[in-house]
Specification:
About 25% of the residues lie in helices and about 20% in strands. It is α+β, with helices and mostly antiparallel strands and about 550 residues long. Bound molecules: fe (ii) ion (FE2).
Amino acid sequence: MRTRCRAAFALLLALLMASGVSTLAQEPTEKKSSELTADEKAQLAKEKQSAAAAQKKLEATWKTIYRPTHVPDRVILTWNGDPATSQAVTWRTDTTATKAVGQIALSEGGTAHDSLGAKVRPNPDKTKTVPGKTEFVKSDLFEAHYHSVSFAELKPATKYVYRVGDGATWSEWYEFRTPSDKPEPLSFMYFGDAQNEIRSHWSRVIRGAYSDMPKAQFMIHAGDLINRGTADGEWGEWHHAAGWINGSIPSVPTPGNHEYSGFALPKFGPKDPPKGEVKGEAKDEAKGEPKADEPKEGKKVAPKSRLSPLWKPQFTLPENGPAGLEESAYYFDIQGVRVISLNSNERQDEQVPWMEKVLKDNPNKWTVVTFHHPIYSTAKGRDNKKLREAWRPVFDKYTPDIVLTGHDHTYGRSGIMREDNLLTGARVHERGTVYVVSVSGPKFYKLEKEDWMVSSAADTQLYQLIRIDGDTLHYEARTANGTIFDTFDLNKKPKGEGAAAAPPVPESGGALPVWVALGAFAVVALVVLCRRFVIRAAA
Ligand SMILES: [Fe+2]
């Protein structure tokens, strides 16, 4: 009987191991070009031809559906000042709209701000008109004007209506609410890379997140919003997917490597800029850049590679970052929370003194940091060692509460962590940082599970909803259909006793796969059975 039990055990273990191996199956190794047979080469050429034809067709579609008109589109709220008292708006038109104007009024139950039927529209007693800026941009598809206006001297915690245009043609009236100027409950959404199939597959993610948290104060996009930073059609898909949500809830974007135009560069820059109130232009500085689907991580960005010329025209962001990284590295304070965007694509060392100052001189109870490349990678074969060595000591010293990243096209979330915790596995600090890597689009990499992960996922589109209320930060990661996948609470301890308590084990979707749990159950059951047989045999 003992022999039979041993054999059963061995079989079960072999099955479990085989199951594990299949879960972590290796990617098929790619052959070198010289190793391909003639048939394989022909097949490859055919596939490339077909992909090029599909891309051409897609670009023709983009040219049709995302062509700018004189009516404002791509309307998006961002901040470039104090969120409690200011609001920036950016939008796009064709080049016939040569002027930028914004109108803003307190939100009322009716149309008092825009007296329908009155002689004067809008009502000058209710509505303030603010001049904006206009910038000409020639992209790979279109010549367009990007406009922006900054509404200032707003009242905190107040609902406003606004519209933008050139003074003759206007957007619809949108509505937003300014945050309070005091610490108050705050909620926001966070998205990892959208990047691919944005119109077809990412749209439901942002719309689902909005339907779950329609009163969110802002939305963090942790880089790689699109696949090719210079592809206007992809930006068209991104704005289309979010639609009027972008005009109602401010966005907080941080650039990823795909916003850096080191690949697939179109020619930018006006040949014959239209006359009128055109200010600024985007020049083609990157001819001859190597084409690649994705720049390799850990390698320096090519010297000529730079943030997409479409980034600054379409996002009006704080300019309080290190010199030269304005509108990509920045911070703002909102209702007792400091939100910091870092630019992980370039000049990582140079950002350290700035980052240290922003983390040190911080009167807020909570600190949220976002950037693109993760400090701790979740995808197989990826690691941003240089970035980790540069930034992790600063995070360990000042322990921001949560760091929100993307890039690895998988999901991984730590407990409260500092590097020495990770190395020893024994010393438990009361202070530390929760690190998250997430993905919202449909491109996935293979997950590589690590000890630091409390929760992880592969092949899953996710969005995150975060609520901060007093001493508690509540976090939820939800799948594309709204199912809660991972959740935890961070609880601040009384002043001077550390930043936050350890998060509980997630309610669902933890790092432990179902087959491991089933396997463990089977082993226990087998042990009990075998013992019973052994006892009977002995008797
Ligand atoms: Fe990336």
